[in-house]
Amino acid sequence: MPSIRKKKTVKQEEPVDEDRLSPATLSRIPNYDGVPDILDYDLRVMFVGINPGLTSAAQGHHFAGPTNHFWPCLSESGLVSRKVTFRDDMNLAKDYRLGMTNLTQRTSRKASDLTVAEQRAGIPTLTAKLRQYRPRIACFVGKGMYEIFARDKCQKLGLQARRIPWDNQQGATRLFVMPSTSGIVSAYQKEDKLKFFQELARLSDELEEEFSKKKEDKE
Hints:
By secondary structure, the chain is α/β, with parallel strands linked by helices. The chain has eight helices and five strands; from the N terminus they run αβαααβααβαββα. Strands 2-1-3-5-4 form a five-stranded mixed sheet. It is globular, with a radius of gyration of 19 Å.
């Protein structure tokens, strides 16, 4: 009788249940001290998160929490031409001129676990990234984080009056603020958050036209 070869079962990658992680488990999470930045020069948008959550640290990707609205909203925003997930984050700069970084690199279960001092300590590094890499827009994914960065109240979400001058003195980064995309933020549902992504896409398109016109005028 011929032998029957059993098919190998492929274990699916499951989201991390952040509420059940023990300290011993946390110590084994890869990239526990953060996830890699996704940076390049002259990006259309650089997204700024507050810090990596446990799922993001475990997966090694930005906004990887299973209930986070970032990727569904980005997919429908007009900033990208197809559906994207956290596994696509490393291709965003090359494919769409979108980048990602965090104000604070330390991983935590909740953003509220970070002290104000920790967040303020990240301001010089973030400012240096904006000056050096010259993104058209820095989008802060969270109002409270932006207020710590700006050391001022954010009176209205969306485009802010403040700008960060570039090192080459050829322009400045606009600052845009949207609600946190975390699923636990109940004040804004996914549809509400999507509107900010779409507004960001419109602003980005306008700036691209503006920069293209300036380039043509110089030529």
